[in-house]
Amino acid sequence: MTHSRDMHDPKTIRDVLAHLAAQADSDRELMIAAHDFVRDSIRFGFTARFDDVTPQMTLERRLGHCNPQADLLRAMLAEAGFEARLKFVGLDKRLLRGATAEPVYRLLPAHVSHALLEVRGEGGWIELDSYIFPPDMLRRRRARLAQAGLPCGFGTFEGASPVWDGDSPAYSQAAPAYVLPDSCAVYRSLAEFVREGGGDNRLLGVPFWRWMWPLRMWPASRLVEGVLNASRA
């Protein structure tokens, strides 16, 4: 199947789906194509709005960390008629060392709120976050892990995969071994998560995105994003 790199600058989620659906021969192929679009087209990184973004914003910026990436895929699957939702878990912050600037890493709590995408399959809900990094980036990060002799870090872990088969769980970050037990909560969207004040991604008790509110205007937002993403390559 031809993936997102061949698309002519789609403007909306519906545009993306129309292109993908024209090349998919089954529902399973369409789900995988949507997964691969987010993986290959949305660069992993942080914006000055953090979690306070819509799926359309993430599509337009082509940039987002795990939560906006998951929400975009959720919106795409929902638009295509699949039942999808977000499952937030407490992710061991050790996975994130080297994935963002060290000062930012030091301010993070021991576990950070991380969204998994859940889509209903024939046997029940399937969870995944294998869309976070494209294959070449994940290979580089895993090579850095091996060189450092670490089981996790640089945003990933040993054994992480960027491939989803449409039927089974698949992880780039939130494999069960790196998730705080009994920490999950389900939301219909990232907007609902933000509105209800979910998560532990906070500084001095205030959600990160609220700290960034005064810095959203150009050029301050670009400066903030440069600091946040200094180590994400």
UniProtKB/TrEMBL annotation:
SUPFAM superfamilies: Cysteine proteinases. It comes from the Bacteria. Residues 19-129 form the Transglutaminase-like domain. It holds the Pfam family Transglut_core. This is Transglutaminase-like domain-containing protein. It comes from Paludibacterium paludis. The lineage of its organism: Bacteria, Pseudomonadati, Pseudomonadota, Betaproteobacteria, Neisseriales.
